[in-house]
Structure formats: structure tokens, C-alpha cells
């Protein structure tokens, strides 16, 4: 079992050498523009472009749905993993999904979808002999609880021996 490392820093500037995957959670309605994706889009246009294309048209081998992962190359030996682990987005009117608003709905995080994404990510990381780098996925705009997400990382990536680093932004940001 590979322990999860925690560092202060920016997940979009992953530490270390060799192949690396930056993992983050996306929503299932195709919205992009808040949270870590802002930094991703400032660094590389490909993940946003490919996410929007995937949402609009799907892919024959990987339909756009909760639990799906899209691996987007952004540099030699560096990929961004768009992981669909959030149902809708939170707005002032409540949870917005593809079918409308639900002011009484809970947070959009979907833990089982994140587990499925991480399980898929094990295959990608193993295939590319890559380490995985991420913020506290599912716990920002998705409204998740790290006490629920961290065990998902341990039972997927860690148990598969994938070196995984979780990044916390410095308090001054």
C-alpha cells in the first residue's frame, strides 16, 4: 500500500519527476469555470476544450456520465484527468442539474462516482507508470466531506501502489 502524501501547494504544478496525472472532479452538466478548473484553463486550454467536447458529443469508448474519466494530455508525461464525480452545480437558487433547479437538494458530490473515477484512474496511472496529484477532490464546490473522500483514495490508488499527492493551497490564497 502506498501512503497518500499531503503538501502545501498547487495541484496544477505537480511535484516530482516522471509521468504525472492531475486529477480533479467535474460536474455532469458540462459547466466549467469555477474552482481548480480556472487554474487548469489558465495553464492549458486542452482540458476545458476536451471536457466541453466530451459533454456535447460524448465519446464512443467513454460516454459522458457520472463516474467517467477523460484523460487529457497537456505536456509530455503530464495529463489532466477530468473525473465526473459531481451531479449538477450549486447556485444561489439551489442545486442545478440538467433537468432544472432543486433548492432542497444536498451537495452535488457523488461518492460512488468518485470511487468509480479513481478505480479507472488506477488503470491509467498503472499503464503510464504515473503518480497522481490532486486537490482535496470533491470537497470544494462539490460540497463533499474529506472524511468520506480520503478512504476512497486509499482503497483505490493507495492499495494499487500508485504514488498520490494531495495539495492544499497556502492559507494566504
From TrEMBL:
Organism ancestry: Bacteria, Bacillati, Actinomycetota, Actinomycetes, Micromonosporales
**What PROSITE patterns does UniProt report for this protein, alphabetically?**
MACRO
The record's catalysed reaction(s) read:
an N-(ADP-alpha-D-ribosyl)-thymidine in DNA + H2O = a thymidine in DNA + ADP-D-ribose
Which residues are in the Macro domain? 1-173
Q: Which SUPFAM superfamilies match?
A: Macro domain-like
Q: What is this protein called?
A: Appr-1-p processing protein
Q: Where is the signal peptide?
A: none
InterPro entries annotated for this entry? Answer: ADP-ribose_metab_enzymes, Macro_dom, Macro_dom-like
Natural source organism: Actinoplanes ianthinogenes
